[in-house]
Design goal:
This protein has 426 residues and is an alpha/beta fold. α6 links the parallel β7 and β8. The chain is globular, with a radius of gyration of 21 Å. Keywords: Carbohydrate metabolism, Cell membrane, Cell wall, Cell wall biogenesis/degradation, Glycoprotein, Hydrolase, Membrane, Polysaccharide degradation, Secreted, Signal.
């Protein structure tokens, strides 16, 4: 997920982007070889979406030591597969360096990365009229850098994702046509065949379920069909939380639930949210099979914010609080584990740059940890088990939010509105 404030950032690259040669051959393999096909869907490799930014701007990049702090925290809770994007920013290369250093420092440390190359249409973020029929000149630089990093760290980078929600049409500031994603996926697949990339590196695009054919017919175009055939797996996003406002057909308290307790009503609503996510997955699966393709589908992003002053908070659908976030996290982990899918849960830590103009906006609160390292309700049991003993974030021990008081937490839990009060589109 990206911030809807869409802050334009100009950050000096730490590496040279001026090199035209993109096909530096991957290094030989003196390392323990673990392939993407071995990791994805493997319950021993818990996946998560990660951004290490601790300030309200990406102009302040996390340091190598801060990234290593985060890696130790995530590794302690069983995470061994990260998803990150925007390879033109120092964060991506620094993250890979941090992981590489940790592997050298501790033989048991294991972490792999799905590296995302950002893709835009022409004139995105420039102030000029965007052209969704052409691609940005910057796309090649992003792909080139993803190739460079994959070849520099072949023991860590196991997947490259071309674009992040780059085809979905509500991304009006930058979305591209499927042929753009297809072009770069084919380019990377060709590099694999020519041994300019590791042949076992998997290539995908990480996008909204609708972009993968699971939504309206406007997405059902021939270039999408070719893309589905070209990727090694489908990485789809599903966000029921957003649809508690935009399409709340699964949300709200029904009349037959009137006799339930408050917490039982919330649990029923969150179970419906899980089933809603499942229905979007099955929509993608049906479309994929309808065009004669059968390959893995994994959840590239899904999450639930713990706070919002917008559509999803107290004055809106009343969806956001730590209790519901924990229920959704548990549901998604349970469902995807049973289905043999990876779930890059969004996200590890709160990132306040996501909506810097609105500090109480939901985009800033999708983390399982707060910025200062407090574990939200979804992870309280891990704190009790001593999983994070001795670990810190920014000098702070990993402790529970609300000082560990469930009674205080429940005070902030919002009751979903009655279904009859919701505006549900046909």
């Amino acid at each position: 997920m990206k911030s809807r404030s869409h802050i334009i950032l100009l950050i000096v690259l730490l590496i040279s982007c001026g090199k035209e040669k993109t096909n530096t051959k991957p290094l030989k393999k003196p390392y323990k070889e673990v392939k993407a096909k071995d990791i994805l869907g493997n319950p021993n490799y818990l996946a998560i979406s990660y951004g290490g930014y601790r300030k309200n701007t990406r102009e302040i990049q996390p340091t190598i030591e801060e990234l290593k702090e985060d890696m130790k925290i995530l590794h302690a809770m069983g995470v061994k597969l990260l998803r990150t994007y925007n390879v033109h920013l120092p964060h991506a290369s620094n993250l890979l360096q941090a992981i590489s250093e940790l592997k050298k420092e501790e033989a048991s440390f294991e972490m792999y990365v799905m590296l995302g190359a950002w893709i835009d249409c022409k004139n995105a973020w420039t102030g000029l009229p965007v052209d969704h029929t052409q691609e940005s000149e910057q796309n090649k630089k992003e792909i080139d850098e993803a190739v460079r990093l994959a070849n520099q760290y072949p023991d860590i980078v196991k997947i490259i994702a071309v674009g992040n929600e780059a085809m979905v049409k509500w991304a009006t500031s930058y979305y591209v046509q499927p042929w753009v994603i297809l072009k770069w996926v084919n380019h990377l697949q060709t590099l694999k065949k020519e041994e300019e990339l590791d042949k076992d590196l998997w290539i995908t695009s990480s996008d909204n379920f609708a972009s993968w054919g699971g939504g309206s017919n406007e997405y059902h175009v021939e270039d999408l069909n070719k893309l589905i055939a070209a990727v090694d797996f489908i990485s789809m996003h599903t966000y029921p939380m957003h649809d508690t406002h935009y399409n709340p057909r699964f949300w709200g308290v029904s009349q037959k639930e009137d006799t339930l307790s408050s917490l039982e009503k919330i649990k029923a609503a969150m179970l419906r949210a899980r089933r809603y996510a499942e229905s979007q997955y099955h929509g993608v699966e049906r479309y994929m099979k309808s065009i004669g393709v059968d390959k893995p589908i994994h959840i590239g992003e899904t999450g639930w914010a713990s706070y919002s002053n917008e559509f999803y908070g107290n004055k809106g659908s009343k969806a956001t609080d730590e209790y519901k976030e924990a229920l959704f996290y548990e549901h998604m982990r349970d469902w995807t584990a049973k289905e043999g899918m990876s779930c890059f849960y969004f996200e590890a830590f709160d990132e306040t740059w996501k909506d810097a103009q609105n500090p109480e906006g939901s985009e800033n609160y999708f983390g399982l940890f707060t910025v200062d390292g407090k574990a939200k309700y979804a992870l309280w049991d891990l704190v009790d088990k001593g999983v994070f003993k001795g670990l810190k974030r920014g000098g702070n021990k990993i402790v529970k939010t609300y000082n560990g008081s469930k009674e205080n937490l429940l005070v902030d839990v919002l009751m979903p509105p009655l279904r009859k009060e919701l505006v549900i589109t046909p």
